[in-house]
């Protein structure tokens, strides 16, 4: 596969509080379709900051960003929201499920927002995703009735609902025990290998990172040259 | 952007905090209830007072006033036209208080398409004789049936029947105050002294009470023929012509026209009773400002609750934005929350307001001044409900505007990374 999905060109970012610090220094890299990549680095090296820029949520940066062949810089908040809705799936360290809705509703929400298919179809698709992740039995429960691992799996199901071109994870296993970490990793691996899902995961769990297809190492706001073969 | 989805999310957020929602909605309900009750009551009161004066007052009254001639003879002389005239001790000419050519004038007025009805009146000063004492009074000769039709006079007759005034010759309808002073009852014969000094016996046919003390203490009514007999005048002697119009607002303009056309004095109701207009206006103004104040206070309640809800729901807002809801969607969600509080609070407020007005309308209200009023007056005007409903929506929208805007501007990165 030689199909660039995500292209970052010379991305720089500054924090101005309490004093101006350059947190990202002209970061450039690209991600091929179907790649399962991880970004590692020490705390404060800018890896999460980079991820939030790539996710289009953070728009305060310099440089260029192309997702699926379209330039993201300079687009309106509304357009970026639509990009996130349609093309990007998110998994955070905390599950961020909405307790006001059932598990199923949580998974369906981005699909309903996209509105390309009917509510019944969204529901059907959400049940499928929950089945793949082995939590179909919990569909009608409230999120706060689930265990941490289950919640994270629901969050993954939610990320998958619109069949996004890329899944981004910010320490998706950072809050889980070993067993659940293993489960989440296996899900990611299966998504990458069986479904050719592109994944980009920020982690500081080196063991996790080593089992991904590509490791991007960051230090002091820069990407280190790849010193390790795939 | 799917409106249905936004409403569904808004509903879920509302139900998750239903107690707060209820408090906010009760605030709106309470203020709308009071708004409706207050305006209905004030409206009823205004109508009552209107009825007290305006319904009983002719829209235009034609009469012949005693006044000095507008043009003195010297002004007509061409010889002195360029001069300034000093004339001292000008006096009005002796002139009958009756309207000149009254009967043809009435005929002409009756044929005017803008006129609802015309009623003649023959008024004269009299003294009521109580033994050796004499009381100042005013007797008006009226066309009994016409007067009742145009000015619903029978509403004010507390004792006896109004038509008896027409059926019994030489009868009189006494004011309540006069009757009490004279110790007169129905069927009694009283004596009055006319301005020319003649005594005249009249039989009491009934007693009326308008609620205006000054009127009830002086004024009495007889038929036109009786009045003409008291004065000793012929049947074309009429002192006032009372005109009721189809459209009361035309009164000032028509009064001016009649003044010209019939060469009489004419006064319209607006000029004669301007203080009532002012009173009505001030009362309405006060009730609207109190009502609006109540709504604004309720609006601040909604503002507070929405602000608190946004702080509690920062995570929710952040995640909604992360999964692709735009700022406009979030804004829509919180606006929907505010408007549904306004809508439900408002609808219940209107219903309760109607209920409260209905209750007030059944509370007994007996006052000797207003014999026909038995309960508190309420005006069930649909306009109040319309204004209340619109206002509840507008206030809640405004109260939700700034919190919603704040919610739409929440930066998801800060919330998510802040954990």
From TrEMBL, chain A:
InterPro entries: AAA+_ATPase (IPR003593), ABC_transporter-like_ATP-bd (IPR003439), ABC_transporter-like_CS (IPR017871), MacB-like_ATP-bd (IPR017911), P-loop_NTPase (IPR027417). Keywords: ATP-binding, Lipoprotein, Nucleotide-binding, Translocase, Transport. GO terms for molecular function: ATP binding; ATP hydrolysis activity; transmembrane transporter activity. PROSITE patterns: ABC_TRANSPORTER_1, ABC_TRANSPORTER_2. GO terms for cellular component: membrane protein complex. Gene3D superfamilies: P-loop containing nucleotide triphosphate hydrolases (3.40.50.300). SUPFAM superfamilies: P-loop containing nucleoside triphosphate hydrolases. Belongs to the ABC transporter superfamily. Macrolide exporter (TC 3.A.1.122) family. This is Lipoprotein-releasing system ATP-binding protein. It comes from Mucilaginibacter oryzae.
TrEMBL record, chain B:
The keyword Transmembrane helix applies. It is found in: Cell membrane. The lineage of its organism: Bacteria, Pseudomonadati, Bacteroidota, Sphingobacteriia, Sphingobacteriales. This is Lipoprotein-releasing system permease protein. One of its GO terms (biological process) is lipoprotein localization to outer membrane. The chain crosses the membrane at residues 21-45, 285-306, 336-363, 383-402. One of its GO terms (cellular component) is plasma membrane protein complex. Pfam families: FtsX, MacB_PCD.
């Amino acid at each position: 596969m030689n199909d660039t999905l995500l292209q970052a060109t010379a991305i720089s970012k500054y924090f101005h509080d309490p004093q101006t610090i350059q947190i990202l220094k002209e970061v450039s890299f690209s991600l091929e379709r179907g790649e399962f990549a991880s970004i590692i680095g020490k705390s404060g090296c800018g890896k999460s900051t980079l991820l939030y820029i790539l996710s289009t949520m953070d728009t305060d940066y310099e440089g260029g960003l192309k997702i699926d062949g379209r330039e993201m810089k300079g687009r309106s908040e509304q357009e970026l929201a639509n990009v996130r809705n349609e093309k990007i799936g998110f998994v955070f360290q905390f599950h961020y499920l909405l307790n006001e809705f059932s598990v199923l509703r949580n998974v369906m929400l981005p699909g309903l927002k996209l509105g390309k298919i009917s509510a019944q179809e969204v529901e059907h698709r959400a049940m499928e995703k929950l089945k793949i992740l082995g939590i179909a039995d919990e569909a009608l429960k409230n999120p706060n009735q689930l265990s941490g691992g289950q919640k994270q799996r629901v969050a993954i199901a939610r990320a998958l609902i619109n069949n996004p071109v890329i899944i981004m994870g910010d320490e998706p296993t950072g809050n889980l025990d070993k067993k659940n970490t293993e489960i989440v990793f296996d899900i990611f691996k299966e998504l990458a290998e069986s479904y050719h899902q592109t994944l980009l995961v920020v982690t500081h769990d080196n063991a996790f990172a080593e089992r991904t297809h590509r490791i991007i190492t960051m230090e002091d706001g820069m990407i280190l040259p790849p010193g390790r073969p795939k | 952007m799917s409106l249905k989805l936004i409403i569904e999310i808004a509903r879920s957020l509302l139900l998750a905090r239903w107690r707060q929602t209820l408090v906010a909605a009760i605030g709106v309900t309470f203020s709308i209830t009071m708004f409706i009750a207050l305006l209905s009551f004030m409206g009823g009161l205004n109508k009552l007072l209107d009825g007290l004066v305006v319904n009983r007052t002719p829209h235009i009254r034609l009469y012949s006033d005693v006044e000095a001639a507008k043009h003195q003879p010297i002004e007509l002389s061409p010889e002195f036209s360029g001069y300034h005239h000093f004339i001292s001790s000008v006096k009005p000419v002796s002139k009958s208080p009756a309207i000149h050519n009254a009967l043809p004038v009435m005929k002409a007025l009756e044929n005017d398409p803008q006129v609802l009805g015309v009623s003649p009146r023959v008024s004269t000063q009299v003294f009521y004789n109580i033994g050796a004492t004499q009381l100042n009074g005013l007797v008006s000769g009226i066309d009994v049936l016409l007067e009742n039709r145009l000015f619903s006079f029978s509403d004010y007759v507390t004792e006896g029947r109004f038509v008896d005034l027409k059926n019994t010759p030489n009868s009189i309808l006494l004011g309540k105050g006069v009757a009490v002073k004279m110790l007169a009852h129905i069927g009694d014969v009283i004596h009055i002294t006319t301005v020319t000094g003649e005594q005249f016996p009249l039989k009491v046919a009934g007693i009326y009470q308008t609620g205006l003390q000054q009127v009830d203490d002086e004024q009495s009514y007889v038929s036109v023929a009786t009045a003409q007999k008291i004065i000793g005048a012929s049947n074309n002697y009429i002192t006032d012509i009372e005109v009721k119009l189809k459209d009361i607002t035309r009164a000032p303009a028509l009064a001016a026209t009649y003044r010209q056309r019939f060469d009489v004095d004419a006064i319209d109701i607006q000029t004669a009773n301007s203080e009532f207009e002012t009173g009505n206006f001030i009362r309405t103004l006060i009730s609207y400002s109190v009502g609006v104040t109540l709504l604004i206070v309720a609006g601040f309640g909604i503002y507070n609750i929405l602000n608190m809800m946004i702080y509690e729901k920062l995570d929710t807002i952040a995640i909604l934005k992360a999964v692709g809801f735009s700022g406009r969607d979030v804004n829509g969600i919180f606006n929907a929350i505010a408007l549904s509080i306004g809508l439900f609070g408002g609808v219940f407020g209107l219903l309760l307001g109607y209920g409260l007005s209905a209750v007030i309308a059944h509370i007994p209200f007996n006052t000797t001044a207003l014999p026909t009023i038995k309960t508190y007056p309420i005006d069930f005007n649909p306009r109040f409900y319309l204004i209340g409903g619109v206002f509840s929506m507008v206030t809640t929208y405004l109260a939700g505007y700034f919190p919603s805007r704040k919610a739409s501007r929440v930066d998801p990165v800060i919330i998510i990374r802040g954990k």
